[in-house]
Amino acid sequence: MNFSDKPLTSVPPIIAIDGPAGAGKSSVAIRLAAFLGLPYLDTGAMYRAVGLMAHRQGWRPPLDPATDGPKISRLAEGRLRLVPEAERMRVWVDHVEVTDEIRSPECSAMASAVSALSEVRRALVPEQRRMGLLNGGVMEGRDIGSVVFPDAALKVFLTASPRTRAERRYRELTARGLDVSLEEVLKDQSERDLRDSSRADSPLQVASGAVVVDTSGMELDEVVERLAALFLDVKRPADSASAIHEGEK
Ligand code: DC
């Protein structure tokens, strides 16, 4: 048997894409997933769905981890359904689709607040692992490379300057018909950045072994090509390369 003919990988690969809001994670992850034929997995959608459920029950930020954490983490039990599609993750709460509703500014604020609760993270991370282990995927979030899949085939931390990120978000929101100013978006973004990176549990950080890519001034295609090249490079296992070298001696 020629061992250099063995499959390149035996498990479906995970590509972890972390970084702050507005760094371009979603657009990049969606394109990269399509290019590599992997599912696109958006973990932020899960925190948004829990945020929506809590919002409907009357909770508003700030939340109290000691009293709200256990109650909010139980809200999602058995009520959430997620289906990855090529361009987005579709989400249902109690069999009613909320894919668009979870994108509202209220849900963004609530998602950030509930994502700081350890009990909520403990409830969602196993579900994220289950989804990733099923068929692999390009998984987007804040703690994928550091907590959810620290052994991911490729770990990327996407970032961009605060101004660039706010301008992208502003364009996205106004294109959806929302009446916001760039100043509001900047303020909201810096509050979320602070909350996401200063929380005690799984703060936004560059995972060990992650490649940091600053997307300011880069075209989307350029970023996707760069990540695809990084992935195809790490996917070539060292042992099959050495088998080829040995055969050539
Ligand atoms: O990526 P997003 O904006 O849809 O995420 C919504 C919120 O959830 C955001 O405040 C960060 C948080 N989040 C998180 O804490 N961990 C993840 N893996 C994904 C999102």
Could you describe the 3D structure shown?
By secondary structure, the chain is α/β, with parallel strands linked by helices. The chain has one domain (14-244): P-loop containing nucleotide triphosphate hydrolases (Rossmann fold, 3-Layer(aba) Sandwich). The protein is built from ten helices and eight strands. It has helices spanning 25-36, 44-56, 65-75, 105-115, 118-135, 144-148, 162-175, 182-198, 220-235, 238-248, and strands spanning 14-18, 40-42, 80-84, 89-93, 96-97, 137-141, 154-159, 211-214. Strands 2-6-1-7-8 form a five-stranded parallel β-sheet, with helices on both faces. A hairpin with a 2-residue loop joins strand 4 (89-93) and strand 5. Helix 3 (65-75) runs parallel beside helix 5. It is globular, with a radius of gyration of 19 Å. 39% of the residues are buried. The structure holds 2'-deoxycytidine-5'-monophosphate. 2'-deoxycytidine-5'-monophosphate binds at residues 21, 43-44, 47-48, 111-112, 115, 141-143, 192, 196.
H/E element order: EHEHHEEEHHEHEHHEHH
CATH superfamily: P-loop containing nucleotide triphosphate hydrolases
What proportion of the residues is helical, as a percent range?
40-55%
Using DSSP, what is the number of strands? Answer: 8
* Ligand roster: 2'-deoxycytidine-5'-monophosphate
User: How is the CATH topology named?
Assistant: Rossmann fold
